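Backbone-to-sequence.
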């Protein structure tokens, strides 16, 4: 998922207006991605992190302008991340990448219920872009 998230983020132009010192943080299961042979190396304005490493000191150091994650992973989901970001007082952009969903508004509403100050939305990724 890591290399796919990075490719999708670049394809969507999320890094277009990012200054050289600004970071887009991609949260995922790095151990699993590495075991699957997927790239999880920070690249230009993108930095990868495990969900468990999302702590106040790390967040302060990275100071992301945007956070990306899969909608659901083995050990966490979009709600877990939204709650953690709210605890960290993050009010920037958080985007969860998912395949087409029947009711994305339900997910948006649930995230906003847990983290009302978070700028949250879904980025839909076609199954073709996801796995080919």
């Amino acid at each position: 998922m890591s290399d796919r998230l990075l490719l999708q983020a670049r394809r969507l132009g999320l890094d277009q207006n990012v200054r050289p010192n600004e970071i887009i943080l991609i949260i995922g299961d790095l151990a699993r991605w590495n075991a699957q042979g997927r790239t999880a190396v920070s690249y230009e304005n993108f930095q990868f992190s495990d969900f468990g490493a999302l702590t106040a000191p790390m967040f302060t150091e990275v100071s992301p302008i945007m956070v990306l994650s899969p909608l659901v992973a083995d050990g966490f989901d979009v709600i877990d991340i939204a709650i953690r970001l709210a605890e960290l007082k993050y009010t920037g952009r958080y985007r969860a990448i998912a395949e087409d969903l029947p009711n994305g508004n339900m997910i948006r509403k649930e995230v906003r219920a847990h983290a009302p100050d978070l700028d949250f939305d879904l980025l839909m990724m076609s199954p073709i872009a996801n796995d080919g």
